[in-house]
Amino acid sequence: MQLKKIIGSLAILGFVSATAIAAPAPTDKTTANEGAAVSKAQQAYMDQIVNHNQDNASHTPSSLLNQWYKHTTISGEFDTDAQFAGRGISYAPGNRQSNFTKGPTSSVSLATAELYLDTDIGSWTHVHAALDYDNDWNLPATSNTNNQTLFFSEATVQVSNFAKSPLWIRAGRQFLNFGDYEHDTITKPLTQLLTEANTTAFTAGYMSSFGLNADVYGFTGLDDANTDNNPRIRGFGADLGFAGKTQLLGYDIHVGFLNNMADLERAKFVMGQYTHTAGEYHKQIPGISAHVGLYSGPFDMYMNFVSATEAFSPQDLVAARSDKGAKPWAYGIEFGYNFDVSHMTSEAMMSYQQSGDAQNFLADALGGFWMPEYRMLFAYRLDVLKNVYVKAEYDHDIDYSSDNGGSGKSDNIGTFRLGVKF
Fold first, then answer.
1. E-strand spans in 147-279?
2. What is the pTM of this model?
3. Residues near 15 by beta carbon (within 8 Å), at least 6 away in sequence
């Protein structure tokens, strides 16, 4: 995980006091302003906390330069997958899941191609854009027909300088800080499917030098079907966290709130595709999330939880085999171990995940609902060359029982990925 790597770099630099980002005494390599000192490593760490759900959005502020190319970076990632499934693969928007109903299938696909543009305009203003090619994000697709789309998943301006102020603001298309997830996983965790929201928003936050951080955000959101359809800023949320490191342990803990889970990516698709409420909702459903990350030496552990606080209107999201509204939830726990193989960095990972009352939350364009109830996942990644890696993943999914609207069957999916980052 990126956060763990940054925490590790802080430890190497000697920031192993009671907290990971306590300010050291000013030196000739430290930016000091008005008595406060924040090193570049600390600024990178604080940026990573602020942007924990953004895609490759961490940066280190630079001084104002005359030539644009001297303060602009272009980076990217390309991933190609070979995938094999025992009972078929269903392409829901932004995710591939077990189908549970078909026979064996296999495929080779360009999973993702992403380009990132980052520009520092002085020491306070940072511009970030992410251009994505994705064969299963916003457009519905089937298990044998891929729809491709090219779009900006992020286009933001962020005003921040943690050497001078703990306050920051970000405006533009972004991933909301609800839940906690990464963007380079092969199979998205169940908690990510219930927290991911990509929209245009204003976000304002606080990032202290001792690890306390918080942010609030607002966005247009869906229309309320019970009132007029005039666009209004109806969506808002907040995130509160604390991160740091002792000599033995690094930690990252935060909780989130979103005032309406109908604004999540998968909820909007299901509601628009199957319940005839495209662009609007009948009942506002708040959601809560929690994340705990622990890091010690080569080991790391992550725990995530998300839940609706009450049931959806059945006009928006119905519970399986019922005329009542669903109240979806999910949790997951992940363990990782980092080690070297012949001087190559590698990581082994395993996770256990479970969802509840969420069978109808993940759908494809053919009328299938494929959110598993249980998942066991194992993965191994090896950096074979500079910026080149291979990854193998196996996940065992178990569908909801037939009494709960599922098939009661299980499926196994194996994936091999060749990826390049630059």
1. 149-160, 167-175, 198-207, 212-219, 223-224, 235-245, 250-258
2. 0.81
3. 21, 22, 24, 41, 42, 245
